[in-house]
Amino acid sequence: MKWTKTLIPTLREAPADAEILSHKLLLRAGLIRKLAGGVYTFLPLGLRALRKVEQIIRQEMDRAGAVEVLMPSLQPAELWQQTGRYETARAVLFRLKDNGGREWVLSATAEEVITTLVANEINSYRQLPKNFYQVSGKFRDEIRPRFGLMRAKEFIMKDAYSFDTTDEGAMASYQKMYDAYKRIFDRCGVQNFPVEADTGVIGGSHSHEFMVPADTGENDVVFCEACGYAANVEKATSGIPKTATREMGATIEKFATPGVVTIEALTKAPFSVPANRQIKTLVYVADSKPVIVLIRGDDQLNEAKLAGVVGTTIFRAATAEEILPALGAHPGSLGAVGVKGIGVYADARLNGANEMTTGANEDGFHWRNVSIERDITVTKWWDLRTVSPGEPCAKCGKPLKIRRAIEVGHVFKLGTKYSEALNATFLDEDGSRKPCVMGCYGIGVTRTLQAIIEQSNDKDGIVWPLAVAPYQVCITPLNVTADNTCMKHAETIYAQLTAQGVEAILDDRDERPGVKFKDADLVGFPIRVSIGEKSLANGEVEIKPRGGAMTLVKVDEVVKKVLALVNRIPG
Ligand code: ATP
Ligand code: MG
């Protein structure tokens, strides 16, 4: 490809709304352009890199036995109503009506469509297991699209769905995808690690996310360097001790706490109740109903864990105006002692706790000597607290750490939720009809591309891993005027490399060498071949790997040398 024939609009400065480095580099290197918030056009170089990532994904999916299909982006609303997700996922769903008034959904994911296909096309255990995948545009109405391709409204995802006859079969399919994901991200040249993930409202039993470590990531990962435990903070647990029980006996007692509305204030004299002897009472509204959440005074609630127990991600903190009629007091004096008719979800760390202090549902009063078992009706015990760094690992006792990371992939054992809702059943060997056991597996293809850049860069620009670089080699003649030998040699080398299957771009712009070198570094081509009159006088050209040292090579050895580099650089 000739530089002047394609479109590489490099920028000196990134637009002001690009907040993180990879987003800036995507724009500055001329890989993408914004059409609207969270919606981007891929320019030629960005598309080439994207296709490389897709290619790696396709190869590994095929190798793992998955088969490619392509499902429509336009999905009938009825399918989403059948699984209940028309409501539960409404916050992110793009919903639209056609001119005839029929309702549709733009594909946010495709469980509904693939399960319907399997319901229609597969009937016998003999046809299973199957794993179908696609690479396609997905649409999510993210409230805060940001960081370029990282959190977009329209993005490209590889989604795969496995169908098995048994639970063990489903686990084997899951493991195959898990292994394939590891290979995919390794081949993309991006540092990555799997972590245990929240199964959230879908409630599957098994889930892992593939994370790329990055300070700009939107996930917190809890990990143990000693034993390798790693989990999203939305799922992570630790070996922190339960609340110590004390000698029972003291009866529950109400006491005046005028003006005390925080855990902190109650720890001070004259009350002096340590935070770990207090119960924090939070009120949320889920499905338009108030629910009470109890957590120890020195702990923090994890809202993702709360979603798991209330069964929906659509909930919010209740306002003081909603709390007053429900509990009879304002925030700061709330508690669950004697509360009936409202769901009470308590963190497992409080299970069995006694001699605790909590609000009395009367402004300016608290209860002391509270025994949860005796005084509070708990609807459900659940792990609701957030793990903090330094807590002991549940597996080995060593201190846990927390780091930020980008979620690039997600594997999920689904079970039979969708196959039951959409009737994807098969006739088993014994003649009985059973629902398929499913798994689903997603990779954010466009997010992965940006995560690679977030990790591979230096002060001059992107440093592409060879496997995903838009071109492997940039040939830079320092003088492009027609009668010049630089350009003639450049053309010859370009033709020879291309004939050998090397992906090369020839920078035929009539620009100063400094401008061309800067752009080549900014875009991040793994190898640069520079051709100038000075070195040509000795029959030589310059070869420089991105970020490496320049060497002079005889003109007739360039192709051999570049081929060696292309084959040597891992990828
Ligand atoms: P997140 O927690 O980041 O919102 P998710 O868990 O909702 O993502 P999944 O449903 O697991 O996403 O989708 C599979 C993959 O698609 C994710 O691992 C991620 O890489 C990618 N992805 C999800 N949402 C977006 C988005 N808005 N923009 C770009 N990629 C996305
Ligand atoms: Mg996910």
List the helices and strands and how they pair.
Layout: H1 21-28, E1 32-36, E2 39-42, H2 44-63, E3 67-68, E4 74-76, H3 77-83, H4 85-88, E5 95-97, E6 103-106, H5 111-121, E7 130-139, E8 154-164, H6 167-187, E9 193-196, E10 206-213, E11 219-223, E12 230-232, E13 253-256, H7 263-267, E14 279-286, E15 289-296, H8 303-310, E16 315-317, H9 320-327, E17 343-347, E18 356-359, E19 365-370, H10 372-375, E20 380-382, E21 401-415, H11 417-421, E22 425-427, E23 433-435, E24 437-444, H12 445-455, E25 457-458, E26 461-462, E27 473-477, H13 485-499, E28 504-506, H14 513-523, E29 527-531, H15 533-536, E30 540-545, E31 551-554, H16 558-568
Parallel strand pairs: 3-7, 15-17, 17-20, 27-28, 27-29
Antiparallel strand pairs: 1-2, 4-6, 5-6, 7-8, 8-24, 9-10, 10-21, 11-12, 11-21, 13-19, 14-15, 14-16, 18-19, 21-24, 22-23, 25-26, 29-30, 30-31
Bound molecules: adenosine-5'-triphosphate and magnesium ion.
